Amino acid sequence: MKKKIVLVAAAILGTAVLGGCTAQQGGQDTAGGEKVYKIGVTQYADHPSLDNCREGFIQGLKENGFEEGKNIEIEVQNAQNDAAMNTQIAQTFAGSKDLVCGIATPSAQALYAACYEKGIPVIFNAISDPVEAKLAVSETEAMQGVSGISDQLPVEDQLQLIRDILPEAKKIGILYTTSEANSVSTLETYRELAPKYGFEIVDRGIAKQAEVTQAADVLLNEVDCISNMTDNTVVAALAVVLDKANAKNIPVFGSEEEQVKNGCIASAGLDYVQLGRQAGAMAAKVLNGTDISTLPYETLQETKYTVNTTTAEALGIQIPEAVAAKAEAVE
């Protein structure tokens, strides 16, 4: 039996042993005898990378034989960065779904807390550190009733990208939410690897979105550039960070292509549509009868490079040929 951890308000509770979680016994029969499974998707916040995860998840299901209107019904909810709404959505899904998908850590944790004892399998998506988020035992061992796809950032590739574009830079600024486990974990990775590339990390933690403006003002006086993560709260205020950074002629590096499309200079990141597709493929395995507890979480192996040529020109920065050759250019 796999190790299991029940999350309730981010605490670890309970030791009950449940059977393997699959969706094979759920669903409703159609007139033709085919089962129709009810799937709930909850997205913690409204921003492009999470939107891409959602769309990719639906694509991945379809590519693996599960299509809305035929053998699945999908309900999508967005918590709008509201913890109380996030919990309410999870509790509602726990009473009506055969399988659920949580996009971003808070949504996945809330779903697991609500669905575990009911035996409803939980697929997570866009979680940088599933072990730290208490949604996996290890990289090779899943927990009871939950697994998914991690968006662990290629931090070393990002540091190399920053060094290639800014050969004289010394200090990288990072804004992060202190209560977001993924952000804390990724920040530690930045701190560990930065000296290898001749950088010092200067960070500022926030508790809520309203604090981003002041934190950005302080940070921009101390650094040569900013490297943005996939922190939900900070990403929601990316426009503010970019406005302030551009006013000081300080480049902001994104963590994925949508952030670059929105004005960051470049990123060494992930393809979030592909991330979602991979989660959809895992969900299809569970719907076909595989015990989710036997599926360790997965990661994307390929780094996607993106550069914003308009931003680079506005900042007076020349993108090296070696970077331009491997990156997708956006304006």
TrEMBL record:
PROSITE patterns: PROKAR_LIPOPROTEIN. This is ABC transporter substrate-binding protein. Keywords: Signal. Pfam families: ABC_sub_bind (PF04392). The keyword Signal applies. Residues 1-19 form the signal peptide. InterPro entries: ABC_transpt-TYRBP-like (IPR007487), Peripla_BP_I (IPR028082). It comes from Candidatus Avimonoglobus intestinipullorum. PANTHER family: ABC TRANSPORTER, SUBSTRATE-BINDING LIPOPROTEIN, ABC TRANSPORTER, SUBSTRATE-BINDING LIPOPROTEIN-RELATED. The keyword Coiled coil does not apply.
